[in-house]
Each structure stands twice: as C-alpha cells, then as structure tokens.
C-alpha cells in the first residue's frame, strides 16, 4: 500500500498518473482519427474518385 500512497500523494506520482492518462487519451484519439481516415479512403476508392 505504500506504493499507492506514494503514487497518489507525491508530486512525481501525480505527474506520472497525468502522463499515463495523457498518453492513453492521445492513443485513443489517434486511433479513432486513423480509422476515420481509412474509412474515408475506402469510400473514395469505391466511388472511383481516385
């Protein structure tokens, strides 16, 4: 439990949690963006625009 206490109460622990959270959110955003662009490209190829 000492590790959890250190993680949730110290400055470096909170910064670590923020960094991990930011990376996870950024990964989800980039994944959704790439998926959207892939779907748009597939639709463009189906319609013969390229």
| Rg | 20 Å
The percentage of residues in β strands lies in: under 5%
**Fraction in helix:** over 70%
SS content category: mainly alpha
- What is the mean pLDDT? 93
Shape: rod-shaped
Care to count the β-strands?
0
| Biggest pleated-sheet summary | none
The helix tally amounts to 2
Low-confidence regions: none
Quaternary status of these chains?
Answer: single chain
H/E element order = HH
* Straight-line distance between termini: 59 Å
Care to give the gist of this entry?
The protein has 2 helices and no strands.
How would you portray this structure in words?
The protein has 50 residues and is mainly α. The chain has a domain at 19-50. Helix content is 90%, strand content 0%. It is built from two helices and no strands. The chain has helices at residues 2-9, 11-47. The protein starts with a helix and ends with a helix. The relative contact order is 0.08.
């Amino acid at each position: 439990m000492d590790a959890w206490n250190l993680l949730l109460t110290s400055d470096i622990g909170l910064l670590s949690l923020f960094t991990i959270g930011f990376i996870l959110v950024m990964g989800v955003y980039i994944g959704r963006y790439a998926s959207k662009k892939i779907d748009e490209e597939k639709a463009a190829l189906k319609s013969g625009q390229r």
